[in-house]
Amino acid sequence: MFNWLVRNVTALLLSLALAIVIWVVALNEQDPFEEKVFPQPVPIAITNLPGGMVLVGNPPTTVDVRVRAPASVWASLNGDQLHAFVDLSGVQGGSVTLPIQATVDQRDARITGITPAEIHLTVETIATRTVPVRLVTSGDAAVGYQVGKATVQPATASISGPASLADTVSELVAQVSLAGAKQDFDGHATLTPLNANGQTVAGVTVEPAEVAVTIPVRQLGGYRDVAVKANYEGQVAAGYRITNIFISPPVVTLFSSDPALVTSLPGFVETERLDISEATDDIQARLGLELPAGVSLVGDQTVVVQVSIAAIESSLTIQRDLEIQGLGPGLTASASPATVDVILSGPLSTLDTLTPDAVRVVLDLLNLPPGLHQVTPQVVVLPEGISVQTVLPGTIEVLITGPGTAARTFTATPTGTAKPATQKPAATATRAPALTPTPTPTPTLTQVPPS
Q1: Any idea which of 110-124, 270-284, 293-307, 406-420 has the lowest mean pLDDT?
Q2: Which residues does 62 contact at the CB level (< 8 Å), separation at least 6?
Q3: What mean pLDDT do residues 425-445 have?
Q4: Does position 409 have pLDDT exceeding 60, yes or no?
Q5: Cα–Cα distance for residue pair 278/49, rounded to 1 Å
Q6: What stretch of H or E contains 351?
Q7: Is 27 within the bounds of a domain?
Q8: Are 165 and 203 in contact (CB under 8 A)?
Q9: Residues 433 and 318 in one domain
Q10: DSSP alpha helix (H) spans, 178-325
Q11: For the chain, how many structural domains are there in total?
Q12: Which of 157, 190, 219 is at the close of a domain?
């Protein structure tokens, strides 16, 4: 037996190798390998950056990775399973070129290519310095005000970053605007690192990032700020009211060479008189101020006064007979009830002059067959600015009858639900399709107090 094995070992090995080849070919035909670039760029992770050092510049952040894997693996492969990284272990600083490495979290997949294969990095030592803070103010305080000596806390701050950048920072600037200031500034200002040429240095960290700034602002003698009060006469038209009075500017600055004179003034000054008699719309005017002798106004010598005027809103309840339209030829209709109450709202002046024919209530019966129907009345309001708040009742029962039909024997159509046949209709009307108002009695008006 042993001799037979020795004589046939070559044939046995060849048979085994052939079987393996056949198995691999069959497997590859069933689940063929594919080699291609992963469709999404893979982020590059920087690892093992030595302590006290920092990357400088803008190196590439992603790479393209080529993967070889069976088609079944490609079907489930995602970006979270691919990893690209650069190992900075042992880097001493300066410019270096390092290989990019990649791995894949799939047993039957392997990385066959990385583009780019290398990355160029600049690594520098982190420098930390203490730099003085300088306050820069812009704009002038309001006329009649003086700015005092400012204080900044803290007076210095720390900067850190790549040595090539940190070494160029000469000062930290805090900027504050005092344009039009009339009171002390007490707040915070952000610090901006500048080089010797006054240019901003980017890429460094400032700690703290802002400082507390206090700047006293006081009013000079002879100056005083007072409110402005509108001085008007007359009454707006009946049915209208003043809704707002706006003054710009609402506060003005006065000056007198005699400080005691402005000190003795009340806390306000009045405008010249503005006549609003019988006004029905907004009024805008530029007016001067009534000032005592020896006192002058600083800046613009007039103020703008805007008086907003609106109609007084009220409500009114009226009773109206129903008008029927759209009734088919030969048909008659009875409505229950025959009248409705309509609550209107709008300007009081318009409601007071409302005429009986200005508001109509219509029942549109177009294309309705004989039967009992529930119809929503439609209110037609002619005066502009008048709106309908409520109609009572909101639904009207209408019985439509024709030749040869008996009253109250019809089944209600889908437009509503029939009421018992024993109920007697309150009104009967026969109308052509065209809308022609029927004579109506003078409505009963119920005035509601103005809202």
Answers
A1: 406-420
A2: 41, 42, 43, 44, 84
A3: 35
A4: no
A5: 83
A6: helix 348-352
A7: no
A8: yes
A9: yes
A10: 259-263
A11: 4
A12: 219
Do 306 and 319 fall into the same domain? no
Across the range 184-204, mean pLDDT stands at 93
> Which residue segment(s) compose the domain that 182 sits in?
126-219
Which residues are 175's β-sheet partners? Answer: 136
Q: Examine the fold and report which residue of 185, 219, 253 is the final residue of a domain before the chain moves on.
A: 219
pLDDT given at position 1: 61
Measured CA to CA, the distance from residue 347 to residue 391 in angstroms comes to 19
Query: 304 - beta bridge partners?
Result: 248, 286
Contacts of residue 160, Cβ cutoff 8 Å, sequence gap at least 6: 126, 127, 128, 129, 166, 204, 205, 207
pLDDT over 70 (residue 23): no
CA 347 to chain centre: 34
Q: Are residues 204 and 243 in the same domain?
A: no
Cβ proximity of 77 and 40 under 8 Å: no
Tell me which residue of 326, 259, 254, 337 sits closest to 296, measured CA to CA: 254
Whether residue 410 has pLDDT greater than 70: no
Residue 284 placed within a domain:
yes
> What is the structure's pLDDT at 168?
93
In this structure, what CATH number is given to the domain that contains residue 257?
Answer: 2.170.120
- 197 and 70, same structural domain? no
Containing 101, the helix (H) or strand (E) segment is: strand 101-104
Is the four-CA dihedral 424, 425, 427, 428 of positive or negative sign? negative
Whether 13 is in a domain gets the answer: no
pLDDT, average across residues 364-385: 88
**pLDDT-based confidence at 433, cuts 50/70/90?**
very low
Do 331 and 288 fall within a single domain?
no
